Amino acid sequence: MISVTSLMESLVAVRTKRCQSLLQLSQKQWSACLLQFEQLQQQLCWSETTHRADVHPVMREFGIFSGYRHTGRGWGYYLRSAFRLHNETLNWLSHALGSLLIIGLGAVLTLRLPATADPVDVRLAWLFCLTSALMHTVSALAHLMHNHSELSHCLVFFADNAAVGLASYVINLLGVAFFSSHSYYSFIGPATMPTLVFGTICMSSGFSLALAAYRRRYNPATSLLMFGPSSCFLFFGLAPVIERRLLSPDEPEMLGMTHYYLFFLAILCYATCFPECLWPGRFDLLLHSHQLFHCLATASHCMLLSSVFSLISDDSPHLFSKRSSEWVSMETACRGLGVAFVFSVCIVALLAKAFRYDTSFSSRASTCCKAN
Questions:
Q1: pLDDT tens across 263-313, in order?
Q2: How many CB atoms lie within 10 A of CB 281?
Q3: Domain assignment of residue 122, given as a range
Q4: Number of domains in the chain
Q5: Residue 171: partners with Cβ closer than 8 Å, 6 or more residues away
Q6: Residue 236, CB-side half-sphere exposure with 13 Å CA sphere
Q7: Which pLDDT tens digit goes with each residue over 230-266?
Q8: Which parts pass through the membrane (predicted)?
Q9: Residue positions in the annotated binding site?
Q10: Which of 41, 70, 179, 302 is disulfide-compatible with 285, CB 3.0–4.6 A?
Q11: What's this model's pTM, rounded to 2 decimal places?
């Protein structure tokens, strides 16, 4: 007689073989889908693009091998590329559409506000709309024009880093002004403006210094400069949201927390270079990590804006207008934003002048293009 143990072992073996065969079949199907997706991208790709070996090293991205625009061409070439498919098309379009989406969403939500809404809260919400739209606009121009040379690449992304710092200033201001509990608010209130200004300067300077000094060479120093100040600054705005969530676990899910979920997911995609880290060369033009980062970041800004307008509509006790007299006024917030902007621009200008940039590569590229 066949024992129960041997019968179970035979059943497990048969099931294991079936699972392995199904896994192999799914892997083959997935590989075939990726290959078809890559071929589709190559068919749609703009004819005036090149391989990564033909562009300046500062413009090469991990796991992306084709679809790069030439270095050293005239500015008209990069303007013509706006609506042609290459590896920066969705980058600049996602930012441009994100800017319009933020402004449009802010306008719609403002029209839906009740008549009792305090104008001070609405002005602060629109301060976020404007700084976020500015950041997306500058980023769109940066992704559209940066391939001209190493100098233009660094300059446009220096400006982009300054705009990111300003948007982060207002995001953290919203976190403290709208989401903190009374005890947390009373504790952190007096230090809010100096912390916001200092954090904005450190964040934009860290990004720009990492770009200027290491030219996209990923190493511990680059990661420290990019993610060190930005993580500390991000936690300053996240802390009151977490504290309010812990104190009120029965409170319905806040869109403000959803903002951070989406933003952390965006950072994870960007930092890990997913999905091109797993399938190099298969996502050169569409759905690579940089594009996913932009889309998720835009969605996170929309969630935060919706959350703020929801609090304004519900006349929440966590409103800026009900606390502004305690520690900061709208004028002080705008003044702090101006100080952070001036210092960020000055530091960016010093970095732009302090480092040398390779102009010979663009000349070589132009010469090769003319020769061909």
A1: 999 988 888 888 998 889 999 999 999 999 999 999 999 999 998 898 888
A2: 14
A3: 68-363
A4: 1
A5: 128, 237, 304
A6: 27
A7: 888 888 888 888 887 777 766 655 666 788 889 999 9
A8: 90-111, 123-142, 154-179, 191-214, 221-239, 259-279, 291-312, 332-352
A9: 143, 290, 294
A10: 41
A11: 0.87
